[in-house]
From TrEMBL:
Keywords: Membrane, Transmembrane, Transmembrane helix. InterPro entries: DtrJ-like. This is TIGR03747 family integrating conjugative element membrane protein. The chain crosses the membrane at residues 21-51, 123-143, 149-168, 188-208, 214-234.
Length: 238
C-alpha cells in the first residue's frame, strides 16, 4: 500500500501587495491593542497593590505630564504645524466618542446626582478609581501614540542613515577582500522588526511618565544600527 508523501519542494504562494498591506495593518492594530491592554492592566494592578492611596490620581498625573512634553518640547513637527493643538483636539474627540457617545459619562453623572443607592451606585463607588484610571490611561495612550506618529521621521532618518552607511561598507567589502558572513546578515535582519516594536510597545505601556527621548532616541539608534549591519553584511554578488 503506497503512502502519500507530502512534497515540500512545491513553491509557496507569495502574498500580493494588498494582502501584505492588510497583514501589516492587522499587526499594527494588534500591537496597539496589546499596548493599551498592558497599560490598563498595569495601572489596575498598581491601584490594587502598589499605589492604592493615589487611586486614579496616578494616571491623571501621567496624562498631565504627557501634555507637558507636547507644550514644552514638541512645538514643531514635519507632519503637522501645531502638535499641541492637534493633540488636544484628539483628546476631546476621543473622550467624546469613547465616554460620552457610549453613555459612560452620562451613567457616572446620573449616579453622582442620584440619591438612590442601588447596585449601580455600589459598583461605581467601588470601581471609581478604576473607571477614572481607565479614562486617564486611554487619554495618555492616545497622547503617546500621537507623539510616536509625529516622531516617525526620526525613525525614517535613522533607517536612511543606516542604509547609506551599510551600502558604503558593503561596497568597500565588495571591491576589497572583506569577509562575508551570512550568519551576521540573517541575525541582524531578524532584529530590525523587534527593535522597532519594542520601542513602541515599551513607550506605550510604561506605567509612569518619562521623557520620550529616553526611549525613542535609543530605539531609533538601535534601528539604524541594525539596518546598517544588515545592509553592510549583505552578500557581495547577487
Amino acid at each position: 500500500m503506497s503512502e502519500s508523501v507530502p512534497n515540500n519542494n512545491l513553491p509557496q504562494k507569495r502574498q500580493g501587495l494588498i494582502s501584505s498591506a492588510f497583514s501589516l495593518l492587522g499587526k499594527i492594530i494588534a500591537l496597539l491593542f496589546t499596548s493599551l491592554f498592558l497599560s490598563l492592566l498595569i495601572e489596575w494592578i498598581g491601584i490594587a497593590i502598589f499605589w492604592p492611596e493615589l487611586g486614579a490620581e496616578h494616571s491623571r498625573q501621567m496624562m498631565r505630564a504627557e501634555l507637558q512634553w507636547f507644550s514644552h518640547d514638541f512645538t514643531r513637527s514635519l507632519l503637522i504645524s501645531e502638535p499641541l493643538q492637534q493633540a488636544e483636539f484628539l483628546l476631546e474627540r476621543s473622550y467624546y466618542w469613547l465616554f460620552v457617545k457610549t453613555g459612560i459619562a452620562g451613567w457616572i453623572s446620573n449616579i453622582k446626582t442620584s440619591d438612590n443607592q442601588n447596585l449601580s451606585y455600589a459598583l461605581y463607588y467601588y470601581f471609581d478609581a478604576y473607571i477614572h484610571a481607565t479614562l486617564y490611561i486611554t487619554m495618555t495612550f492616545i497622547l503617546r501614540l500621537t507623539l510616536l506618529v509625529l516622531t516617525m521621521p526620526l525613525f525614517g532618518l535613522s533607517v536612511l542613515v543606516g542604509l547609506v552607511d551599510g551600502l558604503v561598507r558593503r561596497d568597500i567589502r565588495r571591491f576589497g577582500s572583506g569577509y562575508e558572513s551570512g550568519f551576521i546578515y540573517h541575525h541582524a535582519k531578524r532584529t530590525i522588526g523587534p527593535i522597532f516594536i519594542t520601542a513602541w510597545l515599551l513607550y506605550l505601556a510604561l506605567p509612569f511618565s518619562v521623557h520620550p527621548n529616553v526611549i525613542l532616541l535609543p530605539g531609533a539608534l538601535g534601528l539604524g544600527l541594525a539596518v546598517s549591519i544588515t545592509t553592510g553584511a549583505f552578500k557581495k554578488y547577487l
